[in-house]
């Protein structure tokens, strides 16, 4: 275990070097946050009077800011280093190490998702909570956690989010063994996570008949469940369900990744001389 | 007359060279056929699902400040077609960061051809066909469903809007690349204006705050190349009250913006010093 821990810490230290990039990212994320909020505000104003939405506008604003702030968690694509390793054949060295390959790749993914998150989450949350009201836009600010219970549930959901996001990223990386550049599978998986995970529009705003399916899928664990926990859109009584969902999917996705990786390694041909 | 003939000959020569670079780039991308098909399909699905989300919002809220789904689809299609075109042509500019860092940009400067042409010739990204065909399909559906009354003037306006929009997005990509001369690193900040600009232009400008709208009309003229032409195509009165002449001429703003960013690019090149090694 200490080898894996060292691996995560070393990767994190490398990834934490890019502080300037993180600042630029905060600007981009707040831009997208503002546009998303303006669009949703226009839709909320257009609703027929008296209709009850599954989320209040304040909850939606909080949801948008939290999903932008935790965007770094999002399984966007494959690890460029692993892609190069597969392409050049140096993946063979990784197989020689006395460590489990899935474990190493999972740790890489964990560090890749967690380190940038720490650099981006705090500035964006401060911006959305404190700076927006100062700019005269109090109705678009991120409200604090709905209750101490909501904050606790959010913290637990974030751990689950990290697990599911790392497992999904590792699945994308494993697809490199078949596709070489991993673009097709990665783009498809990222799109699925983006749409059914709440990045394009908040999951509760999809049609009611789609809700049971969307909630059963693993993708809500990454952005949707933590954001809804913070804003109080998930009742505290559903805490067990949130926990069970992330735990089930982390375990399932890891098992799936392991099985696929084992198959891939059996037929792996190292290229190059 | 000889002057003019020389300019024309230079232009033909430049286009022929661009054609050659593009055909090489296409052949490279088509080498791995399976991967190419997967990528194009993935991009087609990815952008198609985005539209599904807009449908879901209409399904839940019933409308968007007086705009129907078909009308918003027209904005969406126009924005996506322009963005896909500029993205396919201008992706070479993305590589400027690594070219400057490795010092390879010096090689481009030594060649007796314009740097813009060489960078554009680096890659014509075919996988953007996914977004392009999706945008086209939605535009066709939207113009049918929203009952656009086509005539020669409107067809010309549509073409002008697409060309102007592609110019506008290409201008942003060139400005993004130009900033590399100062920062040596491609700054992610620009994604707000490329991807963010595309996202913004997918909806009618009237739903945004006035200061935000002004920025995307007068600083980056995206509203001029998507919103104003689309409103004119729909035959609606413009709620923002632009005069009719301005609405017909608006796509020219895209070309003007491209010209300005090319000017900035030349300034950047003059400032460029090689990283050496």
Can you describe what's shown?
Chain A is globular, with a radius of gyration of 20 Å. The mean pLDDT of chain A is 85. By secondary structure, chain A is mainly alpha-helical. The longest helix of chain A has 34 residues, at 101-134. Chain A has helices spanning 2-15, 19-46, 57-69, 80-88, 91-96, 101-134, 148-174, 176-179, 183-196, 211-216, 224-231, 239-266. Chain B has 277 residues and is mainly α. Chain B is 76% helix and 0% strand. Chain B is built from 13 helices and no strands. Chain B has helices at residues 2-30, 33-61, 69-90, 96-102, 105-110, 115-122, 129-145, 152-183, 191-201, 210-219, 222-234, 244-249, 252-271. In chain B, helix 1 (2-30) packs parallel to helix 6 (115-122). Chain B is globular. The model of chain B has no long low-confidence stretch (mean pLDDT 85). Chain A binds chain B through residues 20-21, 24-25, 27-28, 31-32, 34-35, 38-40, 42-48, 53, 179-181, 183-185, 187-188, 190-191, 194-195, 200-201, 205-207, and chain B through 32, 34-35, 38-39, 41-43, 45-46, 49-50, 52-53, 56-57, 59-66, 127, 185, 187-189, 191-192, 196, 199-200, 203, 207-209, 212.
Oligomeric nature of the chains: heterodimer
What is the average per-residue confidence, as pLDDT of chain B, rounded to a whole number? 85
Compute the number of helices of chain A: 12
- What's the pLDDT, averaged over the residues of chain A? 85
The ordered string of helix (H) and strand (E) elements of chain A is HHHHHHHHHHHH
**Secondary structure category of chain A:** mainly alpha
> What are the low-pLDDT stretches of chain A, counting only 5+ consecutive residues below 50?
none
What's the story with the biggest beta sheet of chain A?
none
How many helical elements of chain B? 13
How many beta strands in the DSSP annotation of chain A? 0
For the largest beta-sheet of chain B, the strand count, sense and barrel status come to: none
Number of strands of chain B: 0
Q: Give me the Rg of chain A, rounded.
A: 20 Å
**Termini of chain B, distance in Å?**
46 Å
Low-confidence stretches of chain B: none
Fraction in helix of chain A:
55-70%
Percentage beta strand of chain A: under 5%
- What distance lies between the first and last C-alpha atoms of chain A, to the nearest angstrom? 34 Å
What is the CA-based Rg of chain B, rounded? 20 Å
